[in-house]
User: What shape does this take?
Amino acid sequence: MLYFKESSEGIIFKVRVQPRSSKNMVAGLFGDALKIKLTAPPVEGAANSMCIKYLSKCLSVPPSLLEIVSGQAGRTKYVLFRFGDKTSGNEPEILKSKIRSLAA
Assistant: This one.
């Protein structure tokens, strides 16, 4: 089961990154984290940058709505998925559903 934490800004979820992969892809779950394989090397923030760009593409949201809030130097990262402009009472469940769909 994926790790989720609600905050006042959005939903925080856990990602496990495997850099220097042959292609960018979501590889299912790694414990309670979404496993993502990236072609970028883990140097000078390249993998972090590609992680945000790739997740924004997969979730069909602008990269500005995603931010790595913890784990910049490690493989396990916590990503904040910010609420959009049209925040409603069910927004957290919509965001969680979008993230869960990646692991399916």
About this structure: The chain has one domain: 4-103. Strands lie at 4-6, 10-18, 25-30, 33-37, 66-70, 76-82. The mean pLDDT is 93. The radius of gyration is 13 Å.
